[in-house]
């Protein structure tokens, strides 16, 4: 049985982010999937990139939901 590239200890990973500001890790040698962009300057072993994601992805809600909720809160504060 072969080991997934995501489980290999010697793999180099990069961090990806999509338009909703959601994060993922990805093997450095694989093509970046559509809809995702590599976070510039972030690569390393699995633990390094997971630490980066943990530090920067502090709100799991998609960007569109965060914006909608902010708009609703602003609208509620304007109403009498």
The tally of helices reads 2
Roughly what fraction of the amino acids lie in strands? 25-35%
Largest sheet: 3 strands, antiparallel
Distance between the termini: 65 Å
Low-confidence stretches: none
- Let me know the average pLDDT: 93
Helix-strand makeup class: alpha+beta
Based on DSSP secondary structure assignment, what is the total number of beta strands? 3
Helix content: 25-40%
From the spread of the alpha carbons, the general shape counts as elongated
Fold blueprint:
Layout lengths: L12 E6 L4 E5 L8 E9 L1 H11 L6 H16 L2
Antiparallel strand pairs: 1-2, 1-3
Overview of the structural elements:
The chain has 80 residues and is of the alpha+beta class. The protein is 34% helix and 25% strand. The protein has helices at residues 46-56, 63-78; strands at residues 13-18, 23-27, 36-44. The chain has a three-stranded antiparallel sheet, covered by helices on one side. A hairpin with a 4-residue loop joins β1 and β2.
Compact overview of the structure:
This protein is of the alpha+beta class and 80 residues long. The chain has 2 helices and 3 strands. The longest helix has 16 residues, at 63-78.
């Amino acid at each position: 049985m072969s080991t997934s590239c995501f489980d290999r200890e010697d793999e180099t990973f990069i961090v990806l982010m999509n338009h909703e500001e959601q994060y993922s890790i990805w093997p450095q040698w694989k093509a970046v999937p559509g809809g995702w962009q590599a976070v510039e300057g972030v690569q390393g072993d699995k633990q390094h990139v997971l630490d980066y994601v943990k530090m920067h992805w502090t709100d799991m809600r998609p960007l569109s939901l965060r914006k909608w909720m902010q708009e609703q809160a602003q609208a509620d504060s304007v109403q009498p």
